Every structure is written in structure tokens, then in C-alpha cells.
Structure prediction request, 355 residues.
Amino acid sequence: MLTEDLKVSLLKDLDRIVRADAQELETLRVAMLGKSGSITTALKSLGSMEPEARKEAGAEINRIKALITDALTARKAVLDEAALNARLEAERIDVSQPPRPELAGAIHPISRTMEELAAIFGAMGFEIKEGPDIENDWNAFSALNIPGHHPARAMMDTFYVNAKLNERPALLRPHTSSVQIRTMLAQEPPIRIIVPGRTFRSDHDATHSPMFHQTEGLVIGKDITLGHLKGCLIDFLRAFFDAPDLPVRFRASYFPFTEPSMEVDIGWNRKTGEIGKGGDWLEILGSGMVHPNVLANCGIDPREYQGFAFGVGIERITMLKHGIADLRLFYESDVRWLRHYGFSALAPAMLHEGF
Ligand code: PHE
Prediction:
């Protein structure tokens, strides 16, 4: 039988629970429900009772235990909410305060171009995919129809890492095309993705950096044709350069992973650098119909599916669009340069407003 003393003390504790702070609440919980807490001990003592008495006492202790447990839970909820409210109050930011332009950062032109690409291709129904900078040579070369002896490996010479990735040599990816492979292995067509990201090659001069950025595009379906490739890239280039009648030329070329392959040129003026006029051509990106071997390497039946891919250098189109002459300035972290060429974080890239 629960002694009257214990009952009185538990009811007193109940009263203390209602007023307790977080620390006291925990002390009370341990004192009652802990390993040698009063309720735990009372429950243990049931074992030595006569069956009749045990039934009655058991019911009573459990009733009190439920009462105490409920009270503890309720008090804890109240304390937690009060703590959260106090934190929200203390960490409040006044979003109505005007920005201080001298302290505001700027969006780097590379990031801005990537945002613009996301907006343009997003409007065409493309999804954004990303992949790791460190790849193995199968994803970066072999699966893309560039076997070990192929001269294209030398043209895209990169940095090898002294390690293995899935038992293959690891390297810094020389193009974002490796994410084509990862995506085709991971999901069934239809596929419509762009892949913005960092890429690496062992090059260094005013127009080449050992680290640069690309955006890959990949579209796979049952009835995707060269016509789709052309329409898609013409729309993209006209939107990006904000020139509705920008001349675009497709010139036969070669990439191991596309067949046929095409280099894409835009019209410009070589002397003034003006885009869209002047009668000169400037190569701007690589593209083509995905090679059947590449599809087959990824478990996609080339008799059933086909599609196109393209790769565009982010620095290149950014330099052209904004008249930036030296690639190296992108990476020098010069705040004065960023203030001049950067973009306001408060004006995100949105297609419907134009760029
Ligand atoms: N991966 C090629 C490069 O980096 C570009 C490309 C991508 C060409 C896809 C065709 C198709 O040069």
C-alpha cells in the first residue's frame, strides 16, 4: 500500500512541478521517476505484497505516476516554448532597415552568369544537376568514348590525384560532361538537365585558367533531333546576350562523345567587340548528338533513345557579355573589381525582366 506520507509528498511535488524552472524540473523528474526515484521504488515494492493488496496499490501508484508524468510533460512544453520565444526575441533582425551600400557585397559575375543560365534553361524545363569536382577517369573520359589511348585525353589534360575512386584513377574533372554519365546511370530517360560547375585543366594564360567553370546540357528522349539542339541553343544565346536577332552559326566539328558534333559561333565585330553585328564569327560552345556508344555505356539503348549535349564555358560568355578582358581578374578577389563588375544581391537573375 502506498503510504500516506509518500502520497502527500508526491502531491506536494506536483505543486512544485507547475512552478519549476528547467533545472528544477529535471531534479524533480529524477527524484520521482529516476532509477531510485520515489515512484520507481514504490513500484518495485509491489513485488513483496500479497496479491490482493498488490492489485490495489499497483493501480494507485500507476494513477499517480500518470498524473506526475503528464504534469512533467506539460511543464516541459511550457518551458521549451518560453525558451524559444526568448531566443526569437533576442535574435530578431529588423528586415525593414535600409541596406548600407558601403557594406553590401556583390554577386560575382561567374555566379551571375550561372544564375542567368539557370533562369533561361529553367524556363525551357531543364533541371539543374551537380557532380563532384574529383572524378574517376571512367566518368570523365572512358564512358564518354575517350579510351586511355585517345588523343582527346591530352587535349583536356588535367590534374591527376594520387588516389583511386571506385578502383579507377582519380582526377580533377576537365569538363562537366562527367555528370552526363552520372545522370544517365542514375535515372531513366527522358532527361533534360544542365550542369553548372567547376572544371580543371593544366593551362594558364590570359584566356585559360587551371580552374574554370562550365555548364553542360543534356537532353535524352525517344524523338530528340538536331532540330531541337539548334532551336534550344539559338534561344539560349539570344536570351543570354539579350539580342533577339543574334546571328548563330553551327559548324561541323569533332568531339568523341557526340556524332555529329558542332561548334556554335555567334556573330560579332572583331574590332569593337560588339556582339550581334559586324560580320565576324566567334566560337562560343561545343555541341552535338550524343554518341550511341555513350548511351550504351550508360545502359541506355541507342536504338530506342537519342539526344543532344552541349558544353559552354562560363568565363568565356561572361567576358564577352560584360567586356572583361582578362580571365585572371575573375579569381583575384579584388574588391574594387568586384564592386565594378559585380551584381546586386537584391536584384536576382529573372528571365521575365530580361537581364
Ligand atoms: N565537354 C566539351 C568540352 O569541354 C564540350 C561539349 C560538351 C561538347 C557536350 C559537346 C557536347 O570541350
User: Anything to note?
Assistant: Residues 4-90 form one domain.
